[in-house]
Design a protein that fits this description.
Structural class: alpha/beta
Distance between the termini: 21 Å
CATH class of the largest domain: Alpha Beta
Order of helices and strands: EEEHHEHEHEEEHHHHEHEH
CATH architecture of the largest domain: 2-Layer Sandwich
Strand content: 15-25%
Number of helices: 10
Radius of gyration: 20 Å
Oligomer: single chain
Helix content: 40-55%
CATH topology of the largest domain: Nucleotidyltransferase, domain 5
Number of strands: 10
Length: 338
């Protein structure tokens, strides 16, 4: 089954063609990073307009790259939630028009389910059940992937996402957008014990997380240094901050793995590209004696191939939408049949 997949939830316009949920025939991305860099972050209105400009040509490019015609496509899958509402609407409306014009199934895909499915493209042998740590700019959660479309959230951040904290601290430090990548690069040359930063333990659920206190502590440290004229060791501050984020994530994942008894552990989302988190997760998996799956960096960020991968399994489960499909800025990964 060949699925034309569309992703437009933030600042990347992406169209891919994926076969049987595991094979990427083509994955085309039109990035807006340079456009938003001058603002230090994504401007939703600009992002939406750029999606409109790019999406039709990108779909034609995807078909050309795969040496396929529109009649070779069996279904269209699209991110319908969550994301910047204007941006998500562009993709949803485009996918609806494709479905209607070509008389093919329309498959709604939750963006975070797509991130998890990126691992199916990189690792043909990976099958549920497994545990997945999802870390992105807008979401941080530990997910029990019981089946391809049946999942349970064991723990989540109660406030800020890990990725949002990386980007905010990087921005205050004057690093270029996207800040998380710049902060990660700087951290690799620093001393992660130089600055003492908090590790929160919120609520009664041992798997829940909080990053707002860590972000505030880091920002207060930076602002205080600026006020008194103190020179911070930038690399070491970045290393200390990265260590605090990882120390919040990894022990919870280890505990969840012990509880579930799973032998497969995956990581997904844009922050899965962070070198400190990848290193600490690798060490934890080795200590637990479990198989670790982390997608290549090209599949960590937003892309349409992951939407096509998850779309295949949504289709098999009967999750097909009609022309009433709408876009949502926020929606649980657990979702419901549409």
């Amino acid at each position: 089954m060949r699925i034309l997949a569309v992703e437009s939830s933030c600042d990347e316009t992406a169209v891919a063609i994926v076969e049987d949920g595991r094979r990427v025939l083509t994955d085309c991305i039109a990035s807006q990073v340079e456009l938003h860099r001058i603002y230090g972050g994504v401007v939703p209105e600009i992002a939406s307009r750029k999606h409109i400009e790019a999406i039709y040509g990108l779909a034609d490019q995807a078909l050309a790259n795969a040496k396929m015609t529109r009649q070779d496509i069996d279904a269209v899958a699209v991110t319908y939630a969550p994301g910047l509402i204007g941006a998500v609407l562009v993709g949803v409306n485009f996918a609806k028009s494709v479905s209607l014009a070509l008389d093919m199934p329309l498959i709604p895909v939750h963006h975070i389910r797509g991130h998890i499915a990126a691992n199916y493209l990189a690792f043909q042998e990976l099958k549920p059940p497994f545990l997945c740590l999802v870390v992105s700019g807008g979401h941080t959660m530990i997910v029990d992937v019981q089946d391809y479309t049946k999942m349970q959230i064991l723990g989540t951040t109660l406030d800020d996402a890990a990725g949002e904290c990386f980007d905010k601290v990087a921005r205050v430090l004057g690093m270029p957008y996207p800040g998380g990548a710049a902060l990660d690069k700087a951290s690799q040359n620093g001393d992660d014990t130089k600055y003492l930063l908090p590790r929160s333990k919120p609520g009664t659920n041992p798997y829940d997380m909080s990053f707002s206190g860590l972000k505030t502590a880091a920002l207060n440290l930076i602002h205080h240094a600026q006020q008194v004229g103190e020179q911070l060791e930038l690399d070491s501050l970045c290393a200390s901050f990265s260590a605090a984020v990882s120390d919040t994530l990894v022990p919870r994942v280890v505990q969840a793995m012990k509880q579930t008894g799973y032998k497969s552990l995956a990581v997904a989302g844009g922050v899965a590209a962070n070198s400190r988190i990848r290193r600490d997760m690798t060490a934890a998996a080795e200590q637990l004696g479990v198989k670790l799956y982390m997608p290549p960096l090209s599949l960590c960020g937003d892309n349409a191939a992951m939407i096509g991968a998850q779309g295949y399994y949504e289709y098999l489960s009967g999750n097909i939408a009609d022309m009433s499909l709408n876009a949502y800025a926020t929606k649980s990964i657990l979702g419901e049949k549409l």
